[in-house]
Amino acid sequence: MRSKSWGRPVQPVRTTTAATRPSDPTAFVSAVSMVRTARRSTFRTVMAVVRQVRQGLAWKVASAHQASTRGAPASPLSGNATFCSSGPRCFHPALWRPPLLSSHYFPGYRRASTDAPATLRCSLLPPPVDLKYVRDQLPEVERNIAQRGVTANAARVAALYDRFCELKADTDAVRQERNEVAAKMKNVKELPQAERERCIARGKHLKDALARMEAELVAVEEEMHTEAGKIPNRTHPDVPTGGEERARLLRMAGEKRRFDGFAPKSHLELALELDLVNFEAAARVSGARFYYLRNAGAMLELALVNWAMQRLVLEHGFTPMLTPDLVREEMVAGCGFQPRGEASQTYLVPDGALCLVGTAEIPLGGYYAGQILSEEQLPIRLAGFSHCFRREVGAAGTETRGLYRVHQFSKVEMFAITTPEQSEVMHEELRRIEESLFDALGLCYRVLDMPVEDLGNPAYRKYDIEAWMPGRGAFGEISSASNCTDYQARRLAIRYRDAQHGQVRHVHTLNATACATPRLLISILENYQQCDGSVLVPPVLRPYLGGLEKIARPRASEGVAARSA
């Protein structure tokens, strides 16, 4: 229990009983009011501390539940904030919530320090990369960083890792000696006076030394993890070097449509003429690059989603998932995305440590965070539907017109978890599934092996699929498939137990787009347009639209969709 002034403990308020209740009713009411006020103050104090700890501002926990009967002084938590450890039930272990990315979310990891709760906690975070590999293969890691064109300091990470290992060994040695002294102090009354004083002095010295060393250990570990998080994944040896222009063509499917007797319109013209979309209303409601899909446009998106999910689940054995649109910030970082900063594409919810997802890959990966799977469970195939939210920082030009680059859209995502030996085979399988979907839609597309500068930090290798969009007069990306190997698994602490040897290893994760609805709507509208301004519905989607074969111009007396005779 404490007053409103942080760090100044107050004496606990004793509750009244029949024996101690004052005869004056006014005094009794005053006493009850004091008790209630004290309880509210205690609750506010506890919740304030919980909020601080959850935000990662505190690295120590007060052992108030042990000190409540001793009148121990307040224990420091962070900055100028302290937690009162006197008074009854000021703090209970059940109220403790560990900092983000701790073993609370990743139970497979344990804290290195098991000292009293008031000591600093170390090893809260799973390492974002293989730190030993970074140190031992430093030239290779630096070459990969340079080829990808990212900003990361592998040499600093290697130096911090060496320092961390040294500090960890020294800390463990001091802790062991302190425990030996503590064991000897159990029989302190039997020791000679000189030996007793020496043990007491030595114990105090070791306690202070351990506190200093653990503080430095935490600081080194935090910086090491921050710097290591900037290091990209390794790169497949067959990935082309250079920028986007160096992408390698793997396959060209279908033929570009020829338009006889009329010039093809853009999807924006078609969508407005057919009353499929409304950008003006969305701009008033939400701002630029938002849109309303309406009439046959809304039904066409739902048909695409239902068709894609059904194909994945019934034909390819995926598990269907409807995922949250809001996730914790550490889940975004765990998947290798940047939740903060000027270059971030992520929308942050103020004061909530939550983010709007940019892809279902994030909640699907987070679904298994901190788990140790059995090898028999692998591979895992998930098909997740989500709304996707992206800031699209830096995007400008003609690509921002219409549906090509928007802030919110719907998407069906494939996500796979495999053993390291299965991941490259799974990568090819995901690519073949994507191709089968776009073949069924009758699109002309090309498959590209993307160069190293276009991979992004998580990807070991990435395939992009681009569809021909006549209105744009160019190919446009409609899908990608990435093998992230163990990059995300290390950050999310997803592991599996080897069936043969029982060894615990990190899994590999992969992701691929099955259906990004805005880009597919563009491809369908522009490739299936007719000379009269109508748009044919791809045959595979007609059963999901009640047999609708053609989307025609709206008439005053009819709806916007005309069913062919």
TrEMBL record:
InterPro entries: aa-tRNA-synt_IIb, aa-tRNA-synth_II, aa-tRNA-synth_II/BPL/LPL, Ser-tRNA-ligase_type_1, Ser-tRNA-synth_1_N, SerRS_1_N_sf, SerRS_core, tRNA-bd_arm. Pfam families: Seryl_tRNA_N, tRNA-synt_2b. GO terms for cellular component: cytoplasm. GO terms for biological process: seryl-tRNA aminoacylation. Residues 308-538 form the Aminoacyl-transfer RNA synthetases class-II family profile domain. PANTHER family: SERYL-TRNA SYNTHETASE. This is serine--tRNA ligase.
